[in-house]
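haha ok so turns out i had the wrong file open the whole time. this is the CORRECT one, sorry everyone. sequence first:
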Amino acid sequence: MSSQVDRTGTFRFDRVNSVGLSSGKPVSEDDLQPRSITFSALLHLSEFWDEEDSKWVDWADADVELVAYLPLHFFDKKTQEQAEFSIRKKVAEVFGWDGASFKGLCEGDYSETKGQVRLEDDTYEKAKYPFKVAWLDTFDATPGRQLRQITGDDLKDLDKLMARHLQKLAKPAKAATVKKTSAKPPAKPLKPPKTDAVVGKCTDQEAYTECFALSGSKGGDELEKALNVVWAEEVAKVNVDEAKIKDEEWFEIKTKLLKVIAKV
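then structure:
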């Protein structure tokens, strides 16, 4: 029996045991476009990057598997078009996908596909597992967290664009700390964490309507676009198949997004 990964960090995988695709519910009764599209892959982890010793540790014999949920698209309510998550380009690169067909992506042979994934803590209260895939990369990519940099005039333009929000959120920054974990593979599978009781219920449409109605009253295209991204990510954390999400879970999603909007 395969074990589940028991820590955050950067991992290599040496094969993909299976893949699948899921789509969210339609935008509306008149518009059947899915609100989100997520690609999932069952990865066999073969190596773990030891940050302290800066070397790969062999995990091949430990038989550790990981289900990677990789969001590809979300429906942008403002533009009324499908938008891409940045990780989609990495899915195309690692899995050799030309991007022309979801059928082609799902029917590919990935038994010899190799790559890297970076795991981070999943802070969502109702998460089924404690970790989530934060990034995907090629097998020989530089391990660890990769920084995407904006420089020069682009930084000045970004400061001008976000000036009002920066003034509201400006606080002294705290230094980040790195937690050292053992490079040894996990000894046994993890049990899913216990969850707290739910305090309300609502349908997916009620949650969607209330969140985006409030974001519209706050004003600003950037807020609504950002909310679309957060919506797709929070839904994927609960279940990539929206049809299986319960009313109590929709209420939790709605509550979390309303808190995000209230901070703006």
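The helical segments are 87-95, 102-106, 153-161, 163-169, 204-218, 221-238, 247-262.
again sry for the mixup
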